[in-house]
Amino acid sequence: MNKLNKEQIIDLLPHREPMLLIDELYDIKNLHSATAVVNVKKDSFFVQGHFPGQPVMPGVLIVESFGQAAAALTAHGLDKSTYENKLVFLMGVEKARFRSPVIPDCKLILKIEAIRSHGRVWKYKGEAFVDETKMADAVWSATIVDKK
Question: What is the pLDDT of residue 105?
Fold first, then answer.
């Protein structure tokens, strides 16, 4: 399967509305790379307060979107018994650059890549685009832990 819709992503991730940010994952190369879609809408939960009259997707939610896309890529590529009853936690953000504000209504396209894994620790990099314009990029790490 080279494409996951929102319902299939819900089966992989513990995130739920309003914090489930990614709507689709496609061009999946198992445990290596994928492209995600975040539909940034005028009624997204953060718009009302960030910022009234000039809505902008917060940078921290762009980083969260990167993390969710990476977690879905990883869970999709692993045997279900490996990620069942597990959570993926962000460990660190080495770099995050925000080049232009992400303004609703748009499709934020995330191109992510797993660049290293060591046991339960994974390192990723990603770029975010609206149309052909790079909006942000980041390098981050995450770990898979048991649910408690």
Answer: 96
